[in-house]
Design goal:
Number of helices: 5
Radius of gyration: 21 Å
Strand content: 25-35%
Mean pLDDT: 83
Largest sheet: 7 strands, parallel
Shape: globular
CATH class of the largest domain: Mainly Beta
CATH topology of the largest domain: UDP N-Acetylglucosamine Acyltransferase, domain 1
Distance between the termini: 44 Å
Number of domains: 3
Strand order of the largest sheet: 17-20-23-26-29-32-34
CATH superfamily of the largest domain: Hexapeptide repeat proteins
Structural class: alpha/beta
CATH architecture of the largest domain: 3 Solenoid
């Protein structure tokens, strides 16, 4: 597979996370040179140009002029050929640009067209979707998985056999977590990059994603996501999508040394590692990772796919947006909100809200001093 370079929307105004695409001077598939302007964006107070990081071709263009994006979202990619494909899409997906649909009756709803189609096909009401933030297909998949778990129809009673999708470092750590929980029998790993039959951490590689249908037919319905996604979030989200589409159920796995208050509420697919603490009235969304020694204090709310690294500390009332990452030993102060897909570096201290897609460098204090 060709290596593609993502073109991301920069945060040009620290107080405003959204930017309007004013112009796209380069068309899909066109050749571009390093330093060439590929997009012009603006906020209410700033205007900026996005330059190509390398020479190549503009591929996988997802949005059009006049659309509004969040900082950190991928506009498109730089490829080595004009026919390179979007790496965040599964092989069977439509390669057409991703369009954002706006529902006229729901003025606060911003939703991608694939997410809208999936929601409607599954009988979800658009009124029940999150308002004020971009709803992606992954957001809808999380809601679908959550509803399935509540209905009780997706998990065969008494089923203990389980597979781990992803045999890298996080997958092996997850295998150890599952073993310590003593609740499940691990059959092996699924991994798209390793030969079938390869031994990993004492477990066999059963194959790649193509094995999901065969496993489901054999009555295997449990799986956990072993892709950490720190450097490749789309890969982690893609695993959840594949598991949901194959009707697999993702149980939460909790280490015996982790402490969860009785009033804490965890969705399915959550991974809680050794010595972590989850406080009173905490709400943890689908697919979150609460890593070793992380502290989630009272009344915190974690949206789906949040990743708390080892030793991260959240004071009371912190709200963390979908798919955000909080680095090792980072500290988030009382009642602070962390935006969707924001990245908080290791050892950082966050004293005020971080916008969607915001980046707080390691070892720094947010907001920056002026």
């Amino acid at each position: 597979m060709q290596k593609l370079i993502p073109i991301k929307i920069p945060l040009i105004n620290p107080n405003e996370s959204e930017a309007l695409i004013v112009a796209l001077p380069v068309k899909e598939g066109a050749a571009i040179q390093q330093g060439q302007v590929v997009a012009v964006i603006e906020t209410t107070k700033s205007t900026g140009e996005i330059e190509s990081e390398a020479s190549g071709y503009l591929v996988g263009l997802r949005f059009s002029e006049g659309e509004t994006l969040q900082a950190g979202e991928v506009l498109g990619y730089i490829g080595m050929s004009p026919d390179a494909s979007d790496p965040s899409l599964p092989p069977w997906a439509d390669s057409q640009p991703l369009k954002v649909a706006r529902e006229p009756a729901l003025t606060g709803l911003r939703i991608t067209e694939p997410a809208r189609e999936l929601a409607l096909s599954q009988g979800l009401s658009l009124e029940d979707l999150p308002q004020g933030t971009l709803v992606t297909r992954e957001t809808v998949m999380a809601l679908i998985s959550s509803e399935k778990s509540v209905s009780g129809t997706s998990l065969p009673q008494g089923e203990k056999r389980l597979v781990i999708y992803g045999a890298g470092g996080h997958g092996c750590s997850l295998a150890a977590l599952v073993r310590h929980s003593e609740d499940y029998e691990i059959l092996g790993f699924l991994d798209d990059g390793l030969p079938e039959g390869s031994p990993v951490d004492g477990l066999p590689v059963l194959g790649g994603g193509e094995k999901l249908v065969e496993l489901a037919q054999a009555g295997i319905r449990l799986a956990v996501n072993g892709v950490g996604g720190i450097g490749d979030l789309p890969a982690r989200l893609s695993v959840y999508r594949k598991l949901a589409e194959a009707s697999f159920f993702c149980p939460s796995v909790i280490h015996r040394t982790a402490f969860l208050e009785k009033s804490a509420m965890l969705a399915d697919g959550v991974q809680v590692y050794p010595m972590a603490y989850v406080g009173v009235r905490v709400q943890v969304g689908y697919g979150c990772i609460i890593n070793t020694g992380a502290i989630v204090s009272h009344d915190c709310k974690l949206a789906p796919y949040v990743n708390l690294s080892p030793g991260a500390t959240l004071a009371g009332g912190v709200v963390v947006g979908e798919a955000a990452l909080v680095g090792m030993r980072a500290t988030i102060n009382l009642n602070v909100s962390i935006g969707k897909r924001a990245r908080i570096g290791n050892g950082a201290t966050v004293k005020q809200d971080v916008p969607d897609g915001g980046i707080v460098p390691a070892g720094t204090i947010w907001p920056p001093r002026r």
